[in-house]
Design brief:
The chain is α+β, with helices and mostly antiparallel strands. The protein has 12 helices and 17 strands. The strands form 6 sheets. It has a 5-stranded mixed β-sheet with strand order 12-14-15-17-16, with helices on one face. About 12% of the residues have low confidence. GO terms for molecular function: phosphorelay sensor kinase activity.
């Protein structure tokens, strides 16, 4: 995939992801707003219902009696008035018709009830005195009842409302409305100065919150003097409760957002990994072409020389060119073998022949061969491990040592210095291969064991190889239940330490 195409795809994915997340956030906010609106509506309806119930219950407690009128026999009583005396000083004169419509009238110290003739019990002159007395008693009872109706409004609110009754009403009504969160309530009285005062509450520590609550309802709104008390409710956990109400929807939305975001991040990583693999493939092809082209060209040249007639009788020259062909052929075989071994390791198909052998013997053989082929390098060895025998595959472990030596040679200048050491530590055998080469930066160390990775050298091809050597080393050591450590300083060199258990 070309860079431009990849950038377009990434831009479209970012745009789509941003749009989806923005839509989800908008939808969640909208759902929260709807839930909060519904909650407020339910609370206000509940408070109005509770206020009505309190007023109804108070009215039920007042006696309702029929009153009578004493008059002359045969009289007409349309819109007549019966006056029931009460103590002076109330400053109230109230008229009530059969529809019980109550209004303020004059400042006389009595109550006047206007009644229609069909509501009157008629008492004529022939009525017995005993019956009249009973009717007078009923009138007195009515006077008491009317007095009770209009004096109850002047009672202290603490006596008009029972807290246990209010608690029960609040709890029952809220449950009926589906409100299950904790609440604090209070009854607020408007003072003479206009300031609100909390006269009844179950929230002594949160009185200010109750006073400032926007959830209020008028108590006894039909009082003659008008409403003077309010029932207020405060919900300490309102926000959490509303979130809980849409919890399933909210969690589902957040999960979907997380899935979309995770998928996007994963896709971006895959695209980045594909780009990296594409770059590695390109580098591998370039390096492989370079590594194979040189021996092929050398073999081709040697073959061409051998085909000339002039060299036919020169046995020494023939042997020289035949040796060149053999060496270059071996070099090709080694390169192909490395690629094949890498493929086998990737597929976990590499079989090891484990035997207990001496690591010192293996190292001395490898160093001897390496010195012969790299006479310009100064090689020293300090094989000081008292216990050097381990269970290992000799062939692959020898390739590991050779790869480390070759790697030290590749990344060092002519006249390089390589030091090989062994020692025992923590019931393990330690093998160190150190050089004085170009070294590596810290950010490069995490990639050096990846297949096909090579230290960047620009367009230079003076460092040969496919980038498989160190990945092979790491894989073989892992198969021996060992580990590899690396120490490197740019400009000073690198040290590779292999740690192998003795094995059983």
């Amino acid at each position: 995939m070309k860079t431009r195409q990849r950038n377009i795809i990434v831009a479209l994915m970012v745009l789509a992801l941003t749009g989806l997340i923005a839509f989800q956030v908008y939808w969640i906010n909208h759902a929260l707003a709807l839930s909060e609106t519904q909650f407020e509506r339910n609370v206000r309806e509940s408070l109005v219902h509770i206020a009505d119930r309190l007023e109804e219950q108070e009215a039920v407690q007042l006696a309702q009696n029929t009153f009578v009128y004493f008059g002359k026999d045969g009289s007409t009583y349309q819109n007549s008035t019966l006056k029931l005396r009460r103590k002076a000083g109330t400053g109230v004169n109230v008229s009530a018709d059969t529809d019980t419509n109550i209004v303020k009238d004059t400042d006389e110290s009595h109550f006047a009830y206007t009644i229609k003739s069909d509501s009157v019990i008629f008492i004529g002159p022939g009525t017995k005195e005993e019956s009249k007395q009973r009717i007078r008693n009923r009138v007195e009872l009515l006077d008491v009842a009317v007095h009770r109706i209009f004096t109850v409004e002047q009672k202290d609110i603490r006596k008009r409302i029972q807290t246990d009754q209010l608690d029960s009403l609040l709890r029952t009504t809220f449950l009926e409305k589906g409100i299950g969160t904790a609440y604090k309530y209070g009854i607020i009285e408007k003072g003479n100065s206009g300031n609100d005062e909390l006269v009844i509450t179950d929230a002594s520590e949160q009185s200010e919150e109750v006073l400032d609550s926007r959830y209020r309802a008028s108590l006894f709104p039909n009082d003659i003097d008008g409403p003077g008390h309010f029932l207020a409710v405060y919900f300490p956990n309102q926000s959490a409760y509303i979130l809980q109400e849409i919890g399933t929807t909210l969690v589902a939305s957040l999960v979907f957002i997380a899935i979309i975001l995770g998928s996007f991040i994963y896709t971006m990583k895959v695209i980045g990994r594909q780009k990296k693999l594409s770059d590695i493939k390109t580098d591998f092809i370039n390096n492989m072409t370079h590594e194979l082209k040189t021996p092929i060209a050398t073999i081709s040249l040697a073959t061409q020389v051998l085909s000339e007639k002039d060299i036919g009788n020169d046995q020494e020259s023939r042997n020289k060119y035949l040796r060149v062909i053999r060496d270059e052929n071996d070099r090709l075989a080694q390169q192909v073998e490395r690629v094949l071994q890498s493929s086998l390791m990737e597929n976990n198909e590499l079989a090891l022949r484990m035997e207990r052998e001496s690591m010192h013997v293996l190292l001395m053989e490898s160093l001897s061969t390496f010195k012969t082929m790299n006479s310009d390098c100064q090689i020293t060895s300090k094989l000081e491990a008292a216990e050097d025998t381990v269970v290992m595959d000799v062939h692959h472990m020898q390739n590991v040592v050779r790869n480390l030596l070759d790697n030290a040679r590749k990344y060092s200048s002519p006249g390089c210095t390589i030091e090989v050491q062994t020692w025992n530590e923590d019931k393990s055998l330690h093998i160190s291969v150190a050089d004085n080469g170009i070294g590596m930066e810290a950010k490069q160390l995490q990639y050096i064991f990846d297949s096909f990775y090579r230290i960047p050298t620009g367009n230079r091809h003076d460092v040969k190889g496919f980038g498989l050597g160190l990945s092979y080393v790491k894989r073989i050591v892992d198969l021996h239940d060992g580990s590899v450590r690396v120490k490197s300083t740019p400009g000073k060199g690198s040290e590779f330490i292999i740690i192998l258990p003795y094995g059983e």
